[in-house]
Design goal:
The protein is α/β, with parallel strands linked by helices. The chain has a single domain, classed as TIM Barrel. 40% of the residues lie in helices and 14% in strands. The protein contains nine helices and nine strands. The longest helix is centred in the last third of the chain and has 18 residues. The protein starts with 9 loop residues before the first helix and ends with a helix.
């Protein structure tokens, strides 16, 4: 089937191809290096480091050095232009915001948050290659399916409270990718089992593959 949507930049295309973004959020970013190794080993290729985590900018820079070429490291919870510039300077390949703010003028793709059809369309019109549907935990995949009926050109990434067992349904409803935070990372950032994290990561990657098979 021909895709009539706008062509994507390479970073956004890679996120859509991978199907998920792992969101690293914790009081402190000290455990993110170990977590990232586990996620990448499981086949996750896009990681979002939230700026609400103490040491986030240093973590972004460190992960860029640590992880294999081709791994995408982005910054999340970006709320101001100054934060956006600092994240890009640290090496972020993409920026994500929980609010409808395109952070115009940045040199990397920006994915603003939206909830209503009007907000999603406004983000798209402002140039967002992917719109973050947030918070999606209280919604059902049917909401996205209904949204994409009149707005088929929109590429939407549901984020916030997405359970691992819901990945297939969200992708089946037309999600370009899903953002996974707590249900994927669990307690790994505060001393939890990395073995359990690896199992959750494999579950997520397998779910994307199943949804797209």
């Amino acid at each position: 089937m021909t895709d009539h949507r706008d062509p994507l930049d390479p970073v956004s295309a890679a996120i859509v191809e991978g199907g998920l973004v792992a969101i690293l959020r914790a009081p402190h970013a000290g455990a993110f290096a170990a977590i990232a190794d586990v996620l990448v080993a499981a086949g996750i290729t896009a990681l979002e480091v939230t700026l609400t985590s103490d040491g986030a900018l240093e973590a972004i820079a460190g992960l860029r050095r640590q992880l294999p070429a081709g791994t995408l490291i982005g910054a999340g919870t970006v709320l101001t232009v100054d934060e956006a510039k600092a994240a890009v300077d640290a090496g972020a390949s993409f920026l994500v915001s929980p609010v409808l703010d395109t952070l115009a003028g940045q040199s990397v793709p920006c994915y603003p948050g939206a909830y209503t059809p009007t907000e999603v369309y406004s983000a798209y019109r402002a140039g967002a290659p992917i719109v973050k549907l947030f918070p999606a935990g209280g919604l059902k995949p049917a909401y996205l399916k209904d949204l994409r009926g009149p707005l088929p050109r929109m590429r939407v990434m549901p984020t916030g409270g997405i359970a691992l067992d819901d990945i297939v349904d969200w992708l089946g409803a037309g999600a370009a990718a899903v953002g996974l935070g707590g249900p994927l990372i669990g307690d790994a950032a505060t001393g939890g089992s990395l073995v359990a994290l690896a199992a959750r990561a494999k579950h997520a990657v397998d779910a994307v593959a199943f949804a797209r098979s």
